[in-house]
Amino acid sequence: MIVFRSEVGPDVMMFDEVAQQMMVLMGKEKAARGVVTVEQMAETIARLRAAVAADKAQHRGAAQEEEESGDAPARVSLAQRAVPLIELLEISLARKTPVLWGV
Length: 103
Hints:
A 4-stranded antiparallel beta sheet has the order 2-1-4-3. It is an alpha+beta fold and 103 residues long. The two termini are 12 Å apart. The chain has helices at residues 16-26, 38-69, 78-94; strands at 2-6, 9-14, 34-36, 99-101. Helix 2 (38-69) runs antiparallel to helix 3 (78-94).
């Protein structure tokens, strides 16, 4: 379990595999400890938002098929996983506070 923390927002907890996926999308190394500095946040938020948009576009057809057939969705979307982290980054950027993990 990896927890992303900021002094100005709620903790965001993720299983290691999911958190490492977020780190890669943010342009960070997969590491047990790390930081997104205030200077890096705008780019980090943009990278995560772009990844979410690409994931939505890629899986749009599958979601429509599941909806039409009545089958329950079989996957948790990237948006569902990334949005809490994006929100934490946005709050932290607005208040000029870094986001840390593994501390």
